[in-house]
Structures are given as structure tokens and as C-alpha cells.
Amino acid sequence: MKTVKKYLLNNWPWLTIGVLLTAVSVKMAHIERGYVAYGGEWLIIPLILTIAVVMNR
Fold first, then answer.
1. At what angle do helices 44-56 and 2-33 cross, to 10 degrees?
2. How far apart are CA 8 and CA 45, in angstroms?
3. How many other CB atoms are found less than 10 A from the CB of residue 22?
4. What pLDDT score was predicted for residue 11?
5. Smallest Cα–Cα separation from 37: which of 28, 25, 29, 47?
6. Neighbours of 26 (CB within 10 A)
7. Are 49 and 7 in contact (CB under 8 A)?
8. Where is 29: in which H helix or E strand?
9. Listed residue (7, 10, 9, 17) closest to 47, CA to CA
């Protein structure tokens, strides 16, 4: 539990950016498609967290 808490505290800016970008891209995809679907826009958060981990090494 401590490692998860530490990870979240260290990466909260990246998580915030990822959540905001995901929300915007999901809305845009819904407008474009006309229906709710699960596509690549949901990979924004894992992609940003992966970039953050690589940058911190």
C-alpha cells in the first residue's frame, strides 16, 4: 500500500493530465462516432504513466 501511495504522490501531475486528456478525447470520439465505443482514447492514461516512469529513470 505504501508503494501505491508513494507512486500516486510522485505522479499526481501526470495522472491529472492523463485524466483530462482522456476526458476530452472520449468526448471528441463520441461526437465523431455518434455512439459510445472503447477505442484508443482509453490508452492515454497508461501511455502518459509509462512516459512518466521512463522519464523518471
1. 140
2. 13
3. 18
4. 87
5. 29
6. 17
7. no
8. helix 2-33
9. 17
Contact 8, 24 (CB under 8 A): no
Mean pLDDT for the chain?
A: 90
The torsion of the CA quartet 17, 18, 24, 30, rounded to 10 degrees, works out to 180
What is d(CA 15, CA 36) in angstroms, rounded to the nearest whole number? 23
Summarised one tens digit per residue, pLDDT across range 27-47 is 999 999 999 888 898 999 999
The answer to whether 52 and 13 have CB atoms below 8 angstroms apart is no
Which three-class secondary structure state does DSSP give residue 34? Answer: coil
Burial of 25 (0-12, 13-18, 19+ CB in 10 A): middle
CA-to-CA dists, residue 45 to 2, 23, 34, 36, angstroms? 22, 10, 23, 18
